[in-house]
Amino acid sequence: MDKRERERPRVVLGVSGGIAAYKACELLRRLTESGHDVRVVPTASALHFVGEATWSALSGHPADTEVWESVHEVPHVRIGQAADLVVVAPATADMLAKAAHGLADDLLTNTLLTARCPVIFAPAMHTEMWENPATQENVATLRRRGAIVVEPAVGRLTGVDTGKGRFPDPVEIFALCRRVLARGAEGAAVADLAGRHVVVSAGGTREPLDPVRYLGNRSSGKQGYALAATAAARGARVTLVAGNTELPDPVGVDVVPVGTARQLREAVLKAAADADAVVMAAAVADFRPAVYTTAKIKKVEGREPEPIVLVRNPDILAELSADRARPGQVVVGFAAETDDVLANGRAKLARKGCDLLVVNEVGEHKAFGSAENEAVILAADGTETPVPYGPKEALADTVWDLVGPRLAENHR
């Protein structure tokens, strides 16, 4: 093996026996074409869906299933030891149970036991199997141990069934794999949020005025979605309360769509009941029309329109901060300012009572709709953390870097 090959990230793609096994071919193709050295380890049942020849041709390596193959290379030990990442996609209920209980009856389960790298499970199964208490306990066990178990998607399943349990989009799983590998290469703790439940709000609320008009804002939701995606990549169970965005759902994240500020409040408070941390990145309307007109407001020639009377919306961030749903819960707010940014941010931090406040300047071509952001994160203890201009994922990671130690301190 030459130096260039040794420097390629080594990924083990485990494939268990579900109908979604064919979708793992797309994940494999993306991993290999982006320069990763991928070894496919299918279970015997997975080969009923996609044959060994396909896995070998796409990966460039033999696809072994048994510990008795190539015994002189001790594959049941070496494959896991050498990996930079193991991703099991799809992960059936049976595979999750075996992994949670440490069973090792084939090459893939042996590989999982010997791996010392990050492990990702992408479940796919029928809704009833996913929701079964045994499966949920197995998932919770794996997450407590530091594995990243993404939430399955909601949609069409085998046959006519529809529900939660659909295999996540391979493109999104690939993005998650790259994010986990990048954190590992940076020497960062990869699954430092494993076993945690975090709630993130994103996007902008819309307050209806009549059937065709509303009061809204420019928020695209990109920063909140970056926070959700990076938390999932760090092992958290993530609930994303999303207001009026056109972004695809991040892989492995439970998304709750909302429209208005009051709907967002209801969804966030419900999700926060068992959350370790809540990050309010949504642009929530401060006001709403006092009256909703059931018919479209017409323009009348020669007459000025009636003034629109506004009333205050609930202050969700202040409510979360004042009445924590559980001891040690960390609450993070966002402050979008147009002038006196830091002064206004410090005043808002004191007023809202949250643990951290991400303060950034907004306006035309600033923050809203952009893939980049810069901010200063103010803490209740008086510390300030500047985040230079860069991808919104970098700001998101800095937020979680600050949340993590506070969670550890609060739960001692």
Automatic annotation (TrEMBL):
<keyword id="KW-0460">Magnesium</keyword>
<comment type="function">
    <text>Catalyzes two steps in the biosynthesis of coenzyme A. In the first step cysteine is conjugated to 4'-phosphopantothenate to form 4-phosphopantothenoylcysteine, in the latter compound is decarboxylated to form 4'-phosphopantotheine.</text>
</comment>
<comment type="pathway">
    <text>Cofactor biosynthesis; coenzyme A biosynthesis; CoA from (R)-pantothenate: step 3/5.</text>
</comment>
<keyword id="KW-0285">Flavoprotein</keyword>
<feature type="binding site">
    <location>
        <position position="348"/>
    </location>
    <ligand>
        <name>CTP</name>
    </ligand>
</feature>
<feature type="binding site">
    <location>
        <position position="352"/>
    </location>
    <ligand>
        <name>CTP</name>
    </ligand>
</feature>
<dbReference type="GO" id="GO:0004632">
    <property type="term" value="F:phosphopantothenate--cysteine ligase activity"/>
</dbReference>
<dbReference type="InterPro" id="IPR007085">
    <property type="entry name" value="DNA/pantothenate-metab_flavo_C"/>
</dbReference>
<feature type="region of interest" description="Phosphopantothenate--cysteine ligase">
    <location>
        <begin position="198"/>
        <end position="412"/>
    </location>
</feature>
<keyword id="KW-0456">Lyase</keyword>
<keyword id="KW-0479">Metal-binding</keyword>
<dbReference type="InterPro" id="IPR003382">
    <property type="entry name" value="Flavoprotein"/>
</dbReference>
<dbReference type="GO" id="GO:0004633">
    <property type="term" value="F:phosphopantothenoylcysteine decarboxylase activity"/>
</dbReference>
<keyword id="KW-0210">Decarboxylase</keyword>
<feature type="binding site">
    <location>
        <position position="286"/>
    </location>
    <ligand>
        <name>CTP</name>
    </ligand>
</feature>
<comment type="pathway">
    <text>Cofactor biosynthesis; coenzyme A biosynthesis; CoA from (R)-pantothenate: step 2/5.</text>
</comment>
<dbReference type="InterPro" id="IPR036551">
    <property type="entry name" value="Flavin_trans-like"/>
</dbReference>
<comment type="function">
    <text>Catalyzes two sequential steps in the biosynthesis of coenzyme A. In the first step cysteine is conjugated to 4'-phosphopantothenate to form 4-phosphopantothenoylcysteine. In the second step the latter compound is decarboxylated to form 4'-phosphopantotheine.</text>
</comment>
<keyword id="KW-0511">Multifunctional enzyme</keyword>
<keyword id="KW-0288">FMN</keyword>
<feature type="region of interest" description="Phosphopantothenoylcysteine decarboxylase">
    <location>
        <begin position="1"/>
        <end position="197"/>
    </location>
</feature>
<feature type="domain" description="DNA/pantothenate metabolism flavoprotein C-terminal">
    <location>
        <begin position="193"/>
        <end position="403"/>
    </location>
</feature>
<dbReference type="Pfam" id="PF02441">
    <property type="entry name" value="Flavoprotein"/>
</dbReference>
<keyword id="KW-0436">Ligase</keyword>
<dbReference type="InterPro" id="IPR035929">
    <property type="entry name" value="CoaB-like_sf"/>
</dbReference>
<dbReference type="InterPro" id="IPR005252">
    <property type="entry name" value="CoaBC"/>
</dbReference>
<comment type="similarity">
    <text>In the N-terminal section; belongs to the HFCD (homo-oligomeric flavin containing Cys decarboxylase) superfamily.</text>
</comment>
<dbReference type="Pfam" id="PF04127">
    <property type="entry name" value="DFP"/>
</dbReference>
<feature type="binding site">
    <location>
        <position position="334"/>
    </location>
    <ligand>
        <name>CTP</name>
    </ligand>
</feature>
<feature type="domain" description="Flavoprotein">
    <location>
        <begin position="10"/>
        <end position="173"/>
    </location>
</feature>
<comment type="similarity">
    <text>In the C-terminal section; belongs to the PPC synthetase family.</text>
</comment>
<feature type="binding site">
    <location>
        <position position="296"/>
    </location>
    <ligand>
        <name>CTP</name>
    </ligand>
</feature>
<protein>
    <recommendedName>
        <fullName>Coenzyme A biosynthesis bifunctional protein CoaBC</fullName>
        <ecNumber>4.1.1.36</ecNumber>
        <ecNumber>6.3.2.5</ecNumber>
    </recommendedName>
</protein>
<feature type="binding site">
    <location>
        <begin position="314"/>
        <end position="317"/>
    </location>
    <ligand>
        <name>CTP</name>
    </ligand>
</feature>
